[in-house]
Prior knowledge:
The protein has 3 helices and no strands. It is 87% helix and 0% strand. The chain has one domain. It is mainly alpha-helical.
Amino acid sequence: MRLSKPVYEALPYAYLGFGAGALVASFYLRASGWSNLMMGVGLLALVGGLVLLLKRRDYRVQQRRYGAALDEEEND
């Protein structure tokens, strides 16, 4: 499944926003079970968004530095 470019580029920021929202919600929930669940989900979403951003940045830097040589080696 392919995503359109605007959706693909916005996905890490959506994960970060959802994670931040879940962490904020975990502070306002009264039930400790739901609060802990929201905190865990929020942390996972934040880490996932950061990983996506950093992996994409590293890939794009390598593409600029080495050009198409990376893609040619992977296809062999």
